[in-house]
Write a structure and sequence with these properties.
The complex is a heterodimer of chains A (228) and B (233). Chain A is globular, with a radius of gyration of 18 Å. The longest helix of chain A is centred in the N-terminal third of the chain and has 32 residues, at 47-78. Chain A has helices at residues 3-21, 23-43, 47-78, 82-88, 93-122, 129-157, 163-174, 176-191, 198-224. Chain A is mainly α. With 233 residues, chain B is an all-alpha fold. Chain B has helices at residues 2-29, 43-70, 73-104, 113-134, 138-164, 181-225. The radius of gyration of chain B is 21 Å and the shape is globular. Classes of the chains: A mainly alpha (228), B mainly alpha (233). Chain A binds chain B through residues 78, 81, 149, 152-153, 156-157, 159-162, 166, 169-170, 172-174, 176-177, 180-181, 184, 200, 204, 207-208, 211-212, 215-216, 219, 222-223, 225, 227-228, and chain B through 68, 71, 120, 123-124, 127-128, 130-131, 134-135, 137, 139-140, 143-144, 146-148, 150-152, 154-155, 158-159, 161-163, 165, 232-233.
């Protein structure tokens, strides 16, 4: 069984567990919607200011939700020492990383159909179908960029007492390029792109994802090895 | 062993002496800059701090790769030493930069590319040190420190290029050809001085870490026999 097939089996396992429980998805979803609402309270009822900050709020909601979903994804594996069981199976640790990272990306991707309309309504932004599709594409790139280092760090911090503090502490500074790139790119989609800068920011997001999907795949086996 | 420690200590003392000479040249011999005046003299510690902080982080990255490769604890001790010294220089860099910015730009902070990158860099490596402090098992601590160091180091150029696309206030880098030789001398003296002090501190910190590890390994069997062993899974 090659690495890709093993990774896909692991994605299937995670999706099945998610479908059967659904509690993680619903709680992360509600958390994200609450943050979107709270951000608007911070700015006030000024629709111009809200529209200007809409992209930033949307990406922050994704980032904050991602830490919840990432740590939850490995909390399940810690229960009944399931991760140790997985490591003992003849599964390549690299496949384990890609399975988990793909699962986490899909999970974050599933939040887009809810978060985006909520943000558009709350922040009074009107968009055509093509722009909404571009927004979802950027969301997918941001989710991929967050998931690779997020999965690596969640695998490590889930085995420690202070995982809730450590994961954001490690992840937030690391994903500054994802945050900045996706905020800029989404702001260009929402507010117009007269200087055609969208392409550069998209390349930056894609570049970050490629670098960290490769690097974290290489480092993951060290992060989960027993005693190491 | 005694001779080696003496050698490193000599480096440290040499560095401190050189820092005094460099600072004397910077404060009293070098001319004041035409537009910024006396406050520009902060450059003689600010720029060397930036250079050597970067050298420390690069060294930490190299040590982390070697440590991950061969698994020897001394590379973990060196990685930790390099990150800690780099973080101290990085914090100094931010404070000095802030003072200089207030005097020349009129603000304590600006979202300039080098300022922002320096702050993110400090937070990245502070995160690695925080992770390290929560891991009890020494082998796991060494591996995770190395992994997190590599991940953090690779991010630095990405953050730099990303922030660079924002509008930048920072003066462009000068080269020795565009700067008066009287200004270049204290800058170079202080850079060498801080490098020597950094090597000394890293060596001392690594030695301390190795001794702490040795103590942990001596204490561990005693804890197990006393029935106090607690798993962190």
């Amino acid at each position: 069984m090659n690495v890709i097939r093993q990774a896909l089996v692991l994605v299937g396992k995670d999706m099945l567990l998610e479908w059967r429980g659904r509690s993680r998805f619903i709680s992360v979803l509600l958390f994200g919607v609450v943050t979107l609402l709270l951000f608007s309270f911070a700015v006030g009822p000024d629709s111009v200011a809200l529209r200007a900050a809409a992209a930033g709020f949307l990406v922050l909601a994704l980032l904050l939700s991602s830490t919840l979903s990432l740590s939850e994804s490995f909390r399940l594996e810690q229960e009944e020492r399931a991760l140790e069981g997985l490591v003992l199976l003849p599964v390549d640790p690299v496949a384990l990383f890609y399975g988990k990272a793909i699962g986490n990306t899909l999970f974050l991707l599933l939040l887009a159909p809810i978060f985006t309309p909520v943000a558009l309504v709350l922040y009074s932004v009107e968009l055509g179908a093509m722009k909404i599709l571009t927004l979802v594409g950027l969301w997918a790139l941001a989710a991929a960029g967050l998931s690779a280092p997020g999965t690596l760090y969640a695998a490590m911090t889930s085995r420690l007492r202070s995982q809730d503090v450590l994961l954001p502490l490690l992840l937030f500074p690391l994903v500054v390029p994802v945050l900045m790139g996706s905020v800029k790119a989404m702001a260009l989609v929402l507010g117009g792109d007269p200087l055609e800068q969208l392409r550069s920011w998209t390349v930056l997001l894609g570049g970050f994802a490629v670098i960290y999907w490769s690097l974290c795949g290489l480092l993951f086996p060290y992060a989960i090895e027993e005693g190491g | 062993m005694t001779r080696r420690i003496f050698g490193v200590r000599t480096l440290g003392l040499l560095g401190l002496g050189l820092l005094l000479v460099g600072s004397y040249f910077g404060l009293f011999v070098a001319p004041a800059e035409r537009y910024m005046g006396q406050v520009q003299r902060i450059m003689y510690v600010h720029v060397p701090c930036a250079w050597i902080a970067m050298v420390c982080y690069t060294a930490a990255f190299v040590f982390a790769v070697i440590g991950l490769w061969n698994g020897k604890p001394r590379w973990d001790a060196r990685t930790t030493g390099a990150i800690e010294v780099g973080a101290v220089l990085n914090a100094l860099l931010l404070v000095q930069g802030s003072i200089w910015a207030r005097a020349t730009w009129g603000v304590w902070w600006d979202w300039d590319v080098r300022l922002t990158t320096s702050l993110v860099m400090l937070l990245l490596f502070a995160g690695v040190l925080a992770l390290r402090s929560f891991v009890d098992d020494s082998d796991r601590r060494a591996t995770w420190t190395a992994v997190a160091t590599i991940v953090a180091f690779v991010d630095v150029p990405l953050v730099y290029f990303c922030v660079r696309w924002w509008r930048s206030l920072h003066q462009t880098q000068s080269t020795p050809e565009t700067v008066s030789p009287a200004m270049v001398l204290p800058l170079r003296l202080n850079a060498i001085a801080i490098l020597l002090i950094a090597i000394w501190l890293i060596a001392q910190r690594a030695k301390l870490e190795r001794e702490r590890l040795r103590k942990e390994q001596v204490d561990e069997p005693a804890r197990v026999t006393a029935g106090l062993e607690v798993t962190d899974a």
